[in-house]
């Protein structure tokens, strides 16, 4: 499929939505995305056969808003990948990136949590940062002016502060929210830097490697708000946070030790 220049307003933007048991969040999330991100635009859900049948809700939305790029280049729509045998956040996003590029020819790819903690309307701001500030990667950031986190308690915010300051100390302070998970990037950047890891540590790894390769990273502030439906996959107690935090710390240390890693 021919690729239009990344910055062209006619080039395809694709938002990859990794879902596991997000039945009550997915419809408002997708409808708010479709209402706020300019066409041509594709919402691509990668669901890991959720027991709550999120995939069925998405299949209905894909029938209601079909993505018809082959016949109409100005269209917006929804598509679904239902994975039966695979599971995991990073591999789900990676699958979405691959489909977005290979199947649909997207030139800008974004992704986010599907718990409505990241305001869907802010995706348009990330895309704008890529198109208008000529960024290669736009990072939704809680920890720059205008951003904050009102979703998490003190313990989670303190741990996030410690991990992000540790990352800035060892990996550089071009980014203040290494664990954001709310990203837009040009496709060629993602083709060059495949995601690595199991969970949120892929984000630290991606942002560090993109920065080391000289890509232009910009941060766009966003306010992280509480999930109102469904359950957190990270959990809420100290043990859950420490077990995820341990992977984040080891990722930072490995990247620091392998300064030339990319
Ligand atoms: N496809 C897929 N998606 C997943 C998997 N695990 C988590 N997700 C999705 O990844 C996103 C992040 O999960 P959340 O439950 O928000 O967890 P979190 O952001 O780490 O934790 P909170 O800070 O409590 O929100 C959500 O959209 C989940 O549905 C998985 O194994 N497969
Ligand atoms: Mg979340």
Automatic annotation (TrEMBL):
UniProt KW Transferase keyword: yes
One Pfam family recorded for the sequence: Glycos_transf_2
Residue ranges constituting the Glycosyltransferase 2-like domain according to the UniProt record: 16-192
Keywords for the protein's UniProt record, in alphabetical order: Glycosyltransferase, Transferase
Top-rank taxon, per record: Bacteria
CDD domains linked: DPM1_like (cd06442)
Membrane-spanning intervals of the chain: none
Molecular function per GO: dolichyl-phosphate beta-D-mannosyltransferase activity
Family per record: Belongs to the glycosyltransferase 2 family.
PANTHER family per UniProt: DOLICHOL-PHOSPHATE MANNOSYLTRANSFERASE SUBUNIT 1
Name of the molecule in the record: Glycosyl transferase family 2
UniProt organism field: Rippkaea orientalis (strain PCC 8801 / RF-1) (Cyanothece sp. (strain PCC 8801))
